[in-house]
Amino acid sequence: MLLSYRGFMNTKLYHIVTYGCQMNVHESEKIAGQLYALSYTATDNIELADIIIFNTCCIRESAETKEIGNIGAVKTIKKSRPNVIVAVVGCMTQQKGFAENLIKKFPFINIVLGTHNINKLSNSILSVLNDRKRINEIIDSCDYTDKNVPIIRDRTLNAWVNIMYGCNNFCTYCIVPYVRGREVSRLTEEILQDVKELVQQKNYKIITLLGQNVNSYSSSLNGEKVDFAKLLRLINNIEGEFRIKFMTSHPKDLSNELISAIKECKKVSKYLHLPVQSGSTQVLKRMNRRYTREHYLNLIEKLRTKIPDIALSTDIIVGFPGETEKDFEDTCDLIQKVRYNGAFVFMFSKRSGTVAETMPNQIELAVKRERIHRLLEIQKQINNKMADEEIGKKFEVLIEEVTEKEAIASTSFGKVVRIKDANLRVGSIVDIIVTNVKGSKLIGEVYLGE
Ligand code: 5AD
Ligand code: SF4
Known about the structure:
- This protein is an alpha/beta fold.
- It has helices at 22-37, 61-72, 75-80, 91-94, 98-105, 121-131, 176-180, 188-201, 228-236, 256-264, 281-286, 293-306, 325-338, 365-390; strands at residues 13-18, 41-42, 51-56, 85-90, 111-113, 135-137, 158-162, 164-165, 184-185, 206-210, 218-221, 224-227, 243-247, 271-273, 311-318, 342-347, 394-402, 407-411, 416-419, 429-438, 441-446.
- The strands form six sheets. A six-stranded parallel sheet has the order 2-1-3-4-5-6, sandwiched between helices. The chain has a five-stranded mixed beta barrel with strand order 17-18-19-21-20. The chain has a three-stranded parallel sheet with strand order 7-10-13, with helices on both faces.
- Helix 6 (121-131) links the parallel strand 5 and strand 6 (135-137).
- The longest helix has 26 residues, at 365-390.
- It is globular and about 70 Å long.
């Protein structure tokens, strides 16, 4: 139940600053929903906002440092307009002892919430407005908290749907299990209801299912067990013209049944983000990834045999403690073998409380930098070559964005094509032919037949 606030005006403005992954971007939509219910309206201009919310990420130190700097910069706004409410929520504040230090450093912050109680934001705002008290509430409970939270969706074509929360994997470098808690899967029935509403009433064309490790989804429907493969099949059966995407998949949980479901479900994009993290079995072991280089390469082979044109992307960490030049070369070799359509490469960053934080043989920054440049260069060459190979190919694409000069479209394999035609309609599906490339970018034309 919301507390009531006297003297509420509906011209108040909010500004949300979002950092981090898609999960956070979607959570900001739930924050926006709560603010909208309190009659606040969005503004792009932080200087005009009556409430400023930072939805934070702590996956790497570099992100955190930038966020803290940006939160600190709000001090000048608070000085000229002391009634502005500043809230900091999400992963960064959920770290042990972090919230107290943050408030000590920036006493102008009014509200601090963690990852498990973002749904409390509207009540917290009303308390601050009524009592001018500071709210600092970090809780450890892992039950998912966004049931019945209103959502203001940021995009018109793509809708995100959480299917699970948290992570049980404890990769030794990763802080996520500590700040997001253990895995909780949402009820299948609720997910199906959400998707039905989004595609049949709200006309969304892309449904992206979200979870830290969607492959370990586990729930039931009418007494029957539902795993992720089954969930994909159930969503695929929902009537309507739409695409299904999902992320992220852990290689250790990618079953044969899931590969078959991706292949057989017409609406499921033939695109998989399958983070490998390292191409060295020794490093993978120390990362606690629970698969070997060989197992991963076998998976890729299996995927390509079953779904020949499947598009693949990955995450890689360079400079994990103890990574030798040979380990790193194994990673370079792996990306050349796999030929990913895209790779997100990160330098290892020590995270407080993780196992890797105190591992021996930490790698120097200069070495990490040199390795990341080398790996990105190899990936760039691969992407350019792969793009060249697409020239002359025909695809059915979904028009996702139209600017003054061009339309930006995506294939069901997740590849992006730019089309020099500003008259196409967002949401429509057209046939195109790839006519050119610029670096790794595909350029196409509407295909009108022979
Ligand atoms: N340092 C660097 N990269 C990390 N990631 C997770 N934790 C760390 C860390 N401590 C990367 C992983 C993960 C992606 C979301 O972020 O590659 O897949
Ligand atoms: Fe982090 Fe590993 Fe969980 Fe992914 S699977 S969120 S990398 S602990």
